[in-house]
Design a protein that fits this description.
348 residues; single chain; mainly alpha; Hypothetical protein af1432
């Protein structure tokens, strides 16, 4: 019935299920036609194999059968058959069914191609949004940093050191990336500190120190919540963002708030703003505390000259178990040379 259509279609014939499976594995088909009752493996066996290989999901399958039992037809359809033809089959019926399945395959391919194009656009959109988000984070962090020109690339160095320290502590890649992305915002609250205190060349008075320490709460307040009414004017269509993007943004924001609030807490409970101690301090705060102190000691500030690498390590060792968590400090000391390389790389 089909050999006369060689000029219209490219045809392949198989004499058994095994031969058919081998043939289908070797080239792409737009329609498969099979009998049910055959010597050895049956058409139902073929359907099972095609379903296991996900072939019948993308290639229409026409099954020919002389069995009028409804159970067999239901089984064939459950196994992925697209259409059923009862014997005796006329050439006109078979050709008509094949033309229908070829049109169906064409529509399916067009839809699949369109979906792939849309998926690619969504991926590109997601990448663009991620780049924009990171750019905004860095710029917000730099806004706080520019209040004190002497700090240079402090936030970049702190973020890089945090990533290396998180790696030394065997945090998973997602946590390392999240800390790297949010740690630059640890001091964003300094935006709200008056210049006469932030840039004072001498030692701060107790009153001035108390005001300086409020930068943790100021930073948390800046990062805490989305301004009311934002969604009224700026809305992102659901199709333009990945299903988890809103949740991911919220988790990053919460992490940034935690870092802003805890990077000045101390292991012995004598830090600020809440006097947290020991394991009550989140690991992100413990990590940022070490990276921040290291870079602060190694940097020139209005009130001091930079300490050398060796002097910095000696001063920080005195804080192991009091200022710094012992296990985090030990991990830091094992990679302190990497911290110095980061400083050399990102120094003005």
């Amino acid at each position: 019935m089909l050999r006369g259509h060689r000029d219209e279609w490219e045809l392949s014939f198989a004499q058994s299920v095994d031969e058919a499976v081998e043939t289908v594995a070797g080239k792409a088909f737009d329609t498969i036609v099979s009998d049910v009752s055959m010597p050895g493996k049956t058409g139902l066996d073929l359907l099972k194999i095609l379903k296991e290989k996900n072939v019948s999901e993308v290639v229409p399958v026409i099954i020919l059968t002389g069995n009028a039992e409804s159970d067999l037809k239901r089984t064939a359809l459950d196994l992925g058959a697209t259409d059923l033809l009862n014997k005796p089959v006329t050439q006109e019926d078979l050709i008509a069914r094949i033309r229908n399945t070829l049109r169906l395959k064409e529509f399916q391919d067009a839809l699949r191609n369109q979906n792939e194009i849309l998926d690619q656009r969504v991926k590109e959109r997601t990448i663009d949004l991620e780049h924009a988000r990171r750019d905004i984070i860095w710029r917000l962090a730099k806004a706080g940093e520019y209040r004190d020109e002497e700090t240079g690339d402090h936030v970049i160095r702190v973020a890089s050191c945090c990533y290396e320290l998180a790696s030394a502590l065997d945090l998973d890649d997602g946590d390392r990336q999240a800390i790297f992305l949010t740690s630059p915002l640890h001091d964003v609250g300094k935006i709200g500190i008056p210049d006469k205190i932030l840039l004072k060349p001498g030692k701060l008075t107790p009153e001035e120190r108390a005001i300086m320490e409020t930068h943790c709460e100021i930073g948390a307040a800046i990062l805490q919540d989305e301004p009311k009414g934002m969604n009224k004017f700026v809305q992102t269509p659901e199709s333009d963002e990945s299903p988890n993007s809103t949740e991911d943004n919220d988790e990053l924001r919460k992490l940034a708030v935690t870092i802003a609030m805890t990077h000045h807490e101390k292991w012995d409970g004598n830090g600020y703003p809440n006097g947290l101690a020991g394991d009550d301090i989140p690991i992100c705060g413990l990590i940022v505390a070490i990276a921040d102190v290291f870079d602060a000691l190694r940097s020139e500030r209005p009130y001091k000259k930079p300490y050398s690498h060796e002097e910095t390590l000696e001063l920080m060792r005195a804080g192991r178990g009091s200022h710094f968590a012992p296990h985090v400090f030990d991990a830091f000391e094992s990679i302190a040379a990497d911290f110095e390389k980061i400083r050399d790389q990102f120094s003005l």
